[in-house]
Design a protein that fits this description.
By secondary structure, this protein is of the alpha/beta class. It is 34% helix and 20% strand. The chain has three domains: 110 residues, no CATH class; 241 residues, Purple Acid Phosphatase, chain A, domain 2 (4-Layer Sandwich); 88 residues, OB fold (Dihydrolipoamide Acetyltransferase, E2P), CATH 2.40.50.140. A six-stranded mixed sheet has the order 3-13-14-15-17-16, with helices on one face. Strand 11, helix 12 and strand 12 form a beta-alpha-beta unit.
Length: 530
């Protein structure tokens, strides 16, 4: 009962104050409190203190109207008004006000003539490599042998283009010699101790044991970062048996690259991991992104960037899928994969028709798990195929936009690199991306998290040097440059999942990198701040 006495005392005190302002905040609050009393309700002490605290900042009358409305619809009637109920109503009104402000901004913008420059630019898309129509279904031992032979031959050819690899010998010939030798091989085993690193390499005929000692710190550091199943060149001195003591380890690597630029002043949005269907999908932020593309929101520099967007590139995981991991159904808003793609298509339909959308699959999409992956299957995602400005490609794919080459790769194999290398984690994922460029292979480690199909041709070999290398999967935005190649992991549109929480991964959702093809400058738009 203390609440009613506190209320009466407060009303009496307000009457004595004789405020000079007409309809001051105190007068308005007094009238509101009288209304509470006349409606037959009682304010709890904490609720009254909270109202006094916020009376100068909000419309108390509107808040109380909202409170009365809620009290009348509650399943268990009560005459007491709690602080929690008032806070809930304040938050709801703030959200309503935010929507009103956004609508007003939209109306203001719509009065202007919005003519994005990108609308006047003709799209120029060239598909350089797409595995979709070239995928086989071989799984025999001979298929795997053919696959690794192709990997070894192609990476050996790339390595042999380096001047410092000239003079390398087949392992069998090198083991017959004494003194300094140089060999090329695929790493089949690796043992790391504090005293030395030992790994075995093999070519098409023979194997050798390579020993790396800490007395040569530069070579020792390179050896710590070596991944299984990658191809390397080792220069060193012959030891006993099949051993070689390494003096130098050479990777295929990419040479320093002079990027190509576009003549047209157009932008590319890089995004991925939308996860439509997940309860954690940030649809509200994604719709802000769509409104931004339409010119409905955004001012100044942000609006200028949006007007130049000609392409949206999606690096996989359009939907959350079904049956991807145990108990996934507990974290799904949409439990039917067909409906997930239908909803996704509705969202993509809102992208202006002058903007071209390019989509590759991820491991959550309706496509085979093994790499390389064809484009998302049409019988699952037909609504996406019906959107005229969407181009569906496989994973990985190479494309050229206005003369600028892009390597698109979902990036599941980055998990294998993160677990194999020291000082590389989800927060600096472009270090893992640069490592894949160093080894010239997008999924070097066989038999770990990333399943690889034994195709006659190894589609994961990086035999072209892109200007931009774009991945997703990790859900953390990061970007850097390696030897002239712009590296982008584009974040996501999904809040932290239970699995990510367990793994300590904090996703970067609602943040979009945009690259201008004329300058290759990268801008960032954070839709959480709109």
């Amino acid at each position: 009962m203390c609440g009613i006495y506190l209320l009466k005392f407060y009303l009496w005190r307000l009457k004595l104050e004789n405020l000079s302002r007409t309809e001051s905040s105190g007068e308005k609050l007094r009238k509101c409190l009288e209304k509470v009393f006349s409606e037959g309700y009682q304010l709890q002490a904490e609720a009254l203190s909270f109202l006094k605290l916020i009376e100068d900042k909000v419309d108390v009358e509107k808040i109380l109207d909202k409170v009365f409305e809620k009290l009348k619809t509650q399943p268990q009637p009560t005459i007491f008004i709690s602080k929690g109920l008032i806070e809930e109503c304040v938050n709801e009104l703030e959200e309503e006000n935010r929507r009103i402000v956004e609508k007003v901004r939209y109306l203001e913008v719509s009065k202007e003539v919005y003519h994005p420059p990108a609308k006047d630019v003709e799209a120029k898309i060239e598909v350089l490599k797409d595995p979709s129509k070239s995928i086989s279904s071989g799984e025999s031992l001979s298929d795997f042998l053919s696959y690794f032979r192709d990997r070894f031959k192609r990476l050996t050819k790339i390595l042999s283009e380096r001047l410092d690899v000239k003079g390398s010998l087949p392992i069998e010939d090198a083991l017959k010699k004494s003194g300094r030798v140089k060999v090329i091989g695929l790493i089949s085993e690796k043992i790391v101790t504090s005293r030395r690193i030992v790994f075995r390499i093999e070519d098409l005929e023979k194997t050798a044991t390579i020993i790396v000692q800490p007395e040569n710190p530069e070579v020792f550091q390179v050896a710590t970062e070596l991944l299984l199943d990658q191809v390397v060149c080792v220069s060193g001195f012959r030891g006993g048996g099949d051993t070689i003591f390494a003096e130098e380890i050479l990777l295929p690597d990419i040479p320093y690259h002079k990027p190509r630029y576009s003549w047209e002043d157009v932008n590319v949005v890089f995004t991925s991991d939308i996860h439509v269907g997940s309860i954690a999908f940030e649809e509200k932020l994604f719709r802000r992104f769509l409104d931004w593309l339409k010119g409905r929101i955004g001012e100044g520099k942000s609006r200028e960037i949006a007007g130049k967007v000609k392409y949206v590139v999606v690096a996989g995981d359009v939907v959350d899928g079904v049956g991807q991991y145990p108990r996934q159904e507990d974290e799904l808003e949409i439990k039917d994969v067909y409906k997930q793609y239908k909803v996704a298509a509705k969202l993509f339909e809102e992208i202006p028709d002058y903007i071209e959308v390019i989509i590759i699959p991820g491991n959550h999409d309706a496509v085979r798990r093994t790499l390389p992956q064809p484009a998302i299957l049409k019988n699952f995602a037909e609504p996406l195929y019906d959107v005229p400005n969407i181009l569906m490609l496989g994973n990985p794919s190479y494309i050229r936009l206005h003369g600028v080459e892009l390597l698109l790769h979902h990036g599941r194999s980055l998990e294998d690199v993160l677990s194999s290398l020291p000082n590389v984690n989800h927060q600096n994922v472009t270090k893992a991306m640069s490592q894949l460029l160093k080894v010239r292979h997008l999924a070097p480690v066989y038999g770990h998290k990333t399943p690889i199909a034994p195709e006659p041709i190894d589609w994961m070999v990086v035999d072209r040097i892109p200007d931009i290398y774009h991945t997703g999967h990790i859900h953390v935005f990061d970007h850097s440059t390696y030897r002239g190649v712009l590296l982008i992991n584009s974040g996501c549109w999904q809040r932290q999942t239970s699995y990510q929480k367990k793994m300590g991964v904090t996703p970067t959702y609602g943040v979009t990198p945009i690259v201008n093809l004329k300058t290759l400058n990268l801008s960032i738009v954070d839709f959480r701040s709109f």
